[in-house]
Every structure is written in structure tokens, then in C-alpha cells.
Design brief:
With 501 residues, the protein is an alpha/beta fold. The N and C termini lie far apart (75 Å). The structure holds 2-acetamido-2-deoxy-beta-D-glucopyranose (NAG) (2 copies). One 2-acetamido-2-deoxy-beta-D-glucopyranose binds next to helix 15.
């Protein structure tokens, strides 16, 4: 026990001190505090990574410049695109949490609610809070509590001996409160505790996902999911799309340990449910979220789950564009409400759609508004631009299938998938289609001039597919033709939101 701790214990014994330290078992507290104190510089050097990311375009450029400068992260002249930004920030976060663990620490996220602290603190201490905030953040001194930021988040590597109550009641008051909020450990204790959130962080690879159907939306991800789900050795987190990564964890560079535990429990429950239903406990569990492929942060997170394999399904770019148009932008000759009922039109707005209530009478706007009103729609529909990045992130653990292969040679495709996932190929299920709408969906295929012009605009997408298929040894015969040349209205499938008969 250090001399300081001896004095503290004595003070506690004599009830001379009001410190919350006195409430804890002195041995454990002693170990936590002495470990922290003895190697303070080391713990701090493994602290401070960003744990939550704000989308680049929600912040001005100077903000990012400062973020990267302060972190001493490699400056590549220009800050680079979203991918490189996300890569560096999540790389830093990942590096710190791993380093922290290796050196006997655990990684924590501390959120300090400045305004709440200011409001709860005794009046006599408020000036100190404003002053300390200005000094520790380098900002101008706020004139009132309202000028304080509502909250601030920091990450800290802290010795593994320290648990959550010790961090809240000892580490923060003793080592951080004096500098950052101007309060001595015995001052405004209740206010500080009420203005503090402390949560342990986890590493993405703590998430027990084995595989991901990560795209491409409007290319048959639902069919692929339903068919793979028939395999007794595979389970899915949910019968529907899984939003854990893209919504619940949308802005996180590191997940909270509690969220990871809850999600892993859900994955185990999915396996249990399948075991109940089939009498065979699946050994792999996956998720389907067809948006992951085009979200830089989401695909980085999945890539950090080192065992997770990525499955991507592609389809005819023009057919896909038409489907997206039909689903989100087509007026259906004034029968939009009916089309929504039938599941032909979406009840939700597509990310890139111009406005909530806009619809168009003809698919020709895809061409005429390509760089106008539908510019953002086209951008959100792009696939090719994301594929090189995915291929790099998931080198050796990504499989791309084409919807056309799945229709022509389903057995071969599922055998390849089984091989890729390392499950028994002899248990390949029969394949069915879901949510398929054949025949004329919009007026597109009635106008071959338009079809050819759009086809040219999608050249990059066709080229990317040809490139991929070349390396994959599997050929897709129809790659360069479009669905319009093969429409057989009499035999067309029609099963929106359902399994086709
Ligand atoms: C849209 O909502 C209607 C009515 O609630 C429903 O019948 C229809 O299936 C929904 N469409 C889709 C595509 O989910
Ligand atoms: C077919 O599409 C082209 C290109 O968008 C357009 O100029 C032409 O008017 C369309 N033809 C008909 C009959 O709609």
C-alpha cells in the first residue's frame, strides 16, 4: 500500500474523509488505484480514441482536420474519402482497445454531461466548472451553463482490477474531476455521479457472427436468406433484415460491451430456436442486411469481425435500377395506393429519393434526371464503386454470387456456398424465389431506345460484374443482355413480399 493509500485508509477509519473511497473494500480499491497511479502515463497513452463517429458531411472540414491532427493520425494531404477516414478512426479505436487488453486493462467510455453537472452543482462551484472546462478543452470560457456543451465523451484504458463502481466513484473523481471539471474528489459528489455515464467498450470481433449477406438490395437477398436458412447447419439472427450494425450501432467506432452481450444472446437464441424446430443445433449464425456493402462504417465493422464471411449477390444492373424505380418512384398510372397495398410500391422513402411524395409517370426520367432530380437516387443505387473496397476488406473471405446463376444452376451455387461456409454440401435445400416481380414492371421495356441509353449509363456496373465473373470461373450468359429482351408476360413470376409458388 502506498503512503497515500495508508493515509487515506487512516482518514477513512477516523471518518475524517468524506471520500466515497471509504465505502469500498480497501484491498480491491487499493489495487485498482495503485495500479492506475503507478502506470498513469501508460494508461493515458492507451486512451482517447474516438468511440462514436459523426458522418463526415455532418461536420465541417476544419473539424476533421483538427480531429486527425490532435490524434497524430497520418495526414494524407487531403483528408480522403469517407472510407479512409473511417478506416483510420476505427483502426485507432481497435488498436487502443487491443493494446489496452494486452497491458492488463479494460477500455471504457465515459460520458460527462456538463450542463447537468453545472445545474446540479452547488452555486459556489459553478464558476470553477466553467473555468476548468475552458482550460482543459482550450475553448473560450463559457459565461453560463448554457454555453457548455451538453456532454462530452472520452475513452479511457483503466486497469482490469477497476470495476464500474470504482471507476465512477474513485478513478473519475480522483484523477479526472480536478482537471476537467474543476472539482476536488470530495466536492459535489452527488452532482458528479448524476452527470456521469460509464460503460465498458468491446471489440467488434467479440460479436459472434459467422457470415453476412451484406448486399445487394434489390438483387434477391431475401431469396438467398430464405434458402440458406433451410440448411440445418445455418441459422439467421432474424427472419428479417438485421439492423444491429447499421442502425443500433450506426455511429459507433467501438460497441458497448453490454450491447454486444445482448446481441450475442440473440444469436444464441436463434440457434436454440432452430435446434428446437429441427432437432439439429446449427453451428453457424449469420445476418442479412443488404445495405452493408455500401456503408463505409458498417462494412469496416463487419470486416473487423475476423471470422465473419461476406456473401454478396449481384443481379442485372438495369433490372435492379428498374425495380428500385418501380418500388420508390413510379406512379403506377395514378394507382399508387393500390400498388402499395399489393407490395409493388414501397411504403418508405428510398434514401436517394427526391421528396416523400414525388412519383414519376415514366422510367424515362431515369435518363433525363440522371444528373438532376435523380442524381442522389442514382448514387445510392451504385454498386461497382463499392466492390473494390469490399474485396480488399474481405480478401479471402468474400463470395459473390449472381442472381442469374442462382436461377439457372441453383444446385451448383448452393454447393459453392456450402463449401465457402464449410457446411455439409449434401444438405443443400431446394431453392425457391421470394419477392419476385417478373414481366413488365414499369414502362421501361416498351422503349428500347431508353433501355439502350440506360444500359450505356450502367456500363461501369456491367464491367465490374464481367471482371468479377472472370476471376470466379463461372460465366453468366446473360450478363450483357437485359431482362427486357426476355420478357414473357404469360410466364412472369409475381410474388411481392412472399415466396413464389
Ligand atoms: C404497405 O402497407 C400496406 C398497408 O399497411 C400493406 O398491405 C403493404 O404490404 C405494405 N407494402 C410493403 C411493400 O410493405
Ligand atoms: C423513349 O425514350 C427516349 C429516351 O428517353 C425518349 O426520347 C423517347 O421519347 C421515348 N419514346 C417513347 C415512345 O416514349
Amino acid at each position: 500500500m502506498s503512503r497515500r493509500d495508508q493515509l487515506l485508509s487512516l482518514a477513512c477509519l477516523l471518518s475524517l474523509s468524506e471520500w466515497t473511497l471509504c465505502l469500498e473494500a480497501p484491498e480491491t480499491r487499493g489495487l485498482c488505484v495503485s495500479q492506475y497511479e503507478e502506470r498513469n502515463g501508460a494508461w493515458l497513452s492507451m486512451s482517447g480514441a474516438m468511440s462514436v463517429y459523426v458522418q463526415a458531411n455532418h461536420r465541417p472540414e476544419w473539424y476533421w482536420q483538427e480531429v486527425f491532427e490532435r490524434r497524430g493520425l497520418p495526414d494524407r494531404g487531403v483528408l480522403g474519402d469517407e472510407d479512409s477516414r473511417v478506416d483510420r478512426l476505427s483502426g485507432e479505436a481497435q488498436g487502443q482497445i487491443l493494446g489496452c487488453g494486452v497491458h492488463g486493462g479494460r477500455y471504457w467510455e465515459i460520458q460527462m454531461y456538463y450542463q447537468r453537472l453545472y445545474d446540479l452543482a452547488p452555486k459556489s462551484m459553478r464558476t470553477k466548472i466553467l473555468k476548468a472546462f475552458a482550460e482543459s478543452s482550450g475553448a473560450n470560457r463559457p459565461r453560463s451553463g448554457e454555453e457548455l456543451p451538453p456532454s462530452m465523451r472520452v475513452t479511457l484504458c483503466i486497469p482490469a482490477e477497476c470495476d464500474k463502481p470504482m471507476i465512477r466513484e474513485t478513478i473519475i473523481p480522483r484523477f479526472f474531476a480536478p482537471k476537467h471539471v474543476g472539482l476536488e474528489p470530495y466536492e459535489a459528489k452527488d452532482a458528479l455521479q448524476n452527470a456521469l455515464d460509464v460503460n465498458e467498450l468491446a471489440d467488434w470481433s467479440d460479436i459472434n457472427i459467422d457470415f453476412v449477406i451484406g448486399g445487394v438490395f434489390f438483387c434477391g437477398t431475401t431469396s438467398l436468406h430464405r434458402n440458406l436458412d433451410k440448411h440445418p447447419e445455418l441459422a439467421f439472427s432474424s427472419p428479417e433484415e438485421d439492423y444491429f450494425i447499421t442502425a443500433q450501432m450506426a455511429h459507433r467506432l467501438l460497441p458497448l460491451k453490454s450491447d454486444v452481450a445482448a446481441f450475442n444472446q440473440q444469436l444464441e437464441a436463434a440457434k436454440d430456436a432452430k435446434a428446437q424446430a429441427t432437432g439439429h443445433r446449427p453451428h453457424l449464425v449469420g445476418i442479412r442486411n443488404p445495405m452493408i456493402f455500401h456503408l463505409p462504417l458498417a462494412r469496416h465493422k463487419i470486416a473487423r469481425i475476423t471470422k465473419a464471411k461476406m456473401i454478396l449477390i449481384l443481379c442485372d444492373p438495369l433490372g435492379r435500377l428498374e425495380k428500385a424505380f418501380m418500388f420508390h418512384l413510379y406512379c403506377f398510372q395514378g394507382n399508387l395506393a393500390e400498388a402499395k397495398q399489393q407490395g409493388l410500391a414501397s411504403n418508405f422513402t428510398f434514401l436517394g429519393s427526391p421528396r416523400d411524395d414525388t412519383c414519376f409517370d415514366s422510367a424515362s426520367v431515369l435518363l433525363t434526371e440522371r444528373d438532376g432530380e435523380l442524381k442522389s437516387f442514382w448514387q445510392h443505387a451504385e454498386v461497382a464503386v463499392h466492390v473494390p473496397n469490399l474485396a480488399q476488406l474481405f480478401r479471402g473471405r468474400m463470395m459473390v454470387v449472381h442472381q442469374e446463376q442462382l436461377r439457372r444452376i441453383p444446385k451448383n451455387v448452393f454447393a459453392s456456398l456450402a463449401h465457402f461456409l464449410k457446411v455439409s454440401p449434401e444438405l443443400i435445400p431446394s431453392s425457391t424465389r421470394h419477392n419476385s416481380i417478373g414481366g413488365h414492371r414499369t414502362d421501361l421495356c416498351h422503349n428500347m431506345t431508353l433501355v439502350r441509353a440506360l444500359h450505356r449509363r450502367l456500363q461501369r456496373e456491367y464491367d465490374m460484374q464481367a471482371q468479377l465473373m472472370k476471376t470466379d470461373k463461372v460465366t453468366v450468359s446473360r450478363l450483357r443482355t437485359t431482362r427486357c429482351s426476355e420478357i414473357d408476360q404469360a410466364k412472369a413470376t409475381f410474388c411481392p413480399n412472399a415466396e413464389c409458388a
